[in-house]
Specification:
The chain is α/β, with parallel strands linked by helices and 427 residues long. It folds into 3 domains: 3-134 and 305-319, Rossmann fold (3-Layer(aba) Sandwich), CATH 3.40.50.720; 138-300, 2-Layer Sandwich (Dihydrodipicolinate Reductase, domain 2); 346-425, ACT domain (Alpha-Beta Plaits, 2-Layer Sandwich), CATH 3.30.70. 35% of the residues lie in helices and 27% in strands. Strands 7, 8, 9, 10, 11, 12, 13, 14, 15, 16, 17 and 18 form a 12-stranded mixed β-sheet that branches. A 6-stranded parallel β-sheet has the order 3-2-1-4-5-6, with helices on both faces. The longest helix has 17 residues, at 105-121. The mean pLDDT is 95.
């Protein structure tokens, strides 16, 4: 039986998980899949660094050519993260006619079309299950199990860091800053958490997911993005009174040739399946015309969950080596002229204001909402504090741009002390 030799680009958290799975499950993979897999070389920055795993030091190299120019290596697995030098190395591997398996969501979201063209030109594969939702096989499910469906909606919790933060804030009443510091100490958040807390990570992943789900390329530039830094314990407490929990959601909807894609903090009813997804777990809720509603749930990050997705792609690549599969939709850097990206979507809204405690203020605010065709579904007025009082509104479905105009008008009112927050609501 021919041995399939693999080169790993990176040996951090994910790389270690991949190596561990390949070593510990070697016999099971051979028995179940008929594949003899071997890690031939591992690219690292420092070959002399002390590592958690005891591993043959001769496997390590700091020279990419030891992998790219090795004719015995047929599959390259990349989990370096970021654009540079990951993109350059992936393209080099493809040009050397090596199949690439990657966990790099940013490279895929930004340069998918370029990478896939290189793979097709050289007759090799490009696999990226691990780029979204860690160990949850969402890409395979949408690409290989839901082909009979027209998927028209997906909502996902696809960033474990923000879900951990919002869970702790919700259940313990703590501030964003306090929980973020804890998440950094525990390793759930990076020293620079910007990619997670400002929604960039989820945006890259939604670009990939929505492109596959809707069979149309959705670049990140067409995805609305808003992070969780403005969410407060007060917002969460008032939302709980109204029967909501808050999550950073990646949302994509399609109707005809119109697509809306957005990443932002969202209130959802406590009865919604995504409301039960706590801590660093991920979940993707899908609606299709034939299958109806379904949800996939599991670990969205970590060495072994993400490593599981990488090894699954390696096995798939081996079985499809004679005929790799590529996207069948229009996959170019520029979007298809047939697709209309919606910026003025409709949703419900939660609005929290602090206003002066005097007669007529509520009527004036209600009048502004009415002027911009925003209908109020419910309102809570909390106990006043000296001369001010909190007002909380939940609207019926309203247009995004109409709400922005209404909020701009409300901010100009002398009796409005502050617009504390505006949070979208999905049911």
């Amino acid at each position: 039986m021919e041995e399939i030799k693999i080169g790993l680009l990176g040996f951090g958290n994910v790389g270690t998980g991949v190596y561990k799975i390949l070593e510990e499950n070697r016999n099971d993979i051979l028995h179940r899949e008929g594949l003899k897999l071997k890690v031939e070389k591992i690219l690292v920055r420092d070959v002399h660094k002390r590592r958690k795993m005891i591993i043959d030091s001769s496997l390590f190299t700091d020279n990419i050519k030891d992998i790219i120019d090795n004719p015995e290596i047929s599959i390259v697995a990349e989990f370096m993260g970021g654009i540079d030098p990951a993109k350059e190395y992936i393209l080099a591997a493809l040009e050397k006619k090596k199949t690439v398996v990657t966990a790099n969501k940013e490279v895929m979201a930004r340069y998918w079309s370029e990478l896939e063209k290189a793979a097709q030109k050289n007759g090799v594969g490009l696999y990226y299950e691990a780029s979204v939702a860690g160990g949850i096989p969402i890409i395979k499910v949408m690409g290989e199990s839901l082909q009979a469906n027209k998927v028209y909606e997906l909502m996902g919790i696809i960033n474990g860091t923000t879900n951990y933060i919002l869970t702790k804030m919700s259940e313990e009443g703590r501030s964003f800053e306090d929980v973020l510091s804890e998440a950094q100490r525990l390793g759930y958040a990076e020293p620079d958490p910007t990619a997670d807390i400002e929604g960039f990570d989820a945006t890259y992943k939604l670009s990939i997911l929505s492109s596959i789900a809707f069979h149309a390329r959705v670049p990140i530039e067409y995805i609305y993005r808003e992070g969780i830094t403005k969410i407060t314990a007060e917002d969460i407490a008032y939302g709980k009174e109204l029967g909501y929990v808050i999550r950073l959601l990646a949302i994509a909807k399609k109707q005809g040739f119109s697509i809306e894609t957005r990443v932002h903090p969202t209130f959802i009813p406590m009865s919604h399946p995504l409301a039960a997804v706590r801590d660093s777990y991920n979940a993707i809720f899908i609606r299709g015309d034939a299958v109806g509603s379904m949800m996939l749930y599991g670990r969205g990050a970590g060495d072994l969950p993400t490593g599981s997705a990488v090894v699954s792609d390696i096995i798939t690549a081996c079985h499809q080596s004679e005929k790799h599969r590529y996207t069948t939709f229009y996959n170019e850097a520029q979007v298809s002229e047939e697709v209309n990206f919606i910026k003025n979507w409709e949703t419900e809204f939660f609005i929290r204001l602090t206003v002066k405690d005097k007669p007529g203020v509520l009527a004036k605010i209600a009048g502004i909402f009415g002027k911009h065709e925003v209908s109020i579904a419910s309102m809570i007025q909390k106990n006043h504090n000296e001369d001010s009082v909190p007002l909380i509104f939940v609207t019926h479905h309203a247009k995004e741009l109409s709400m922005k105009k209404a909020i701009d008008d409300i901010k100009c009112q002398q009796d409005v002390i502050r617009v504390e927050n505006v949070i979208r609501v999905e049911n």
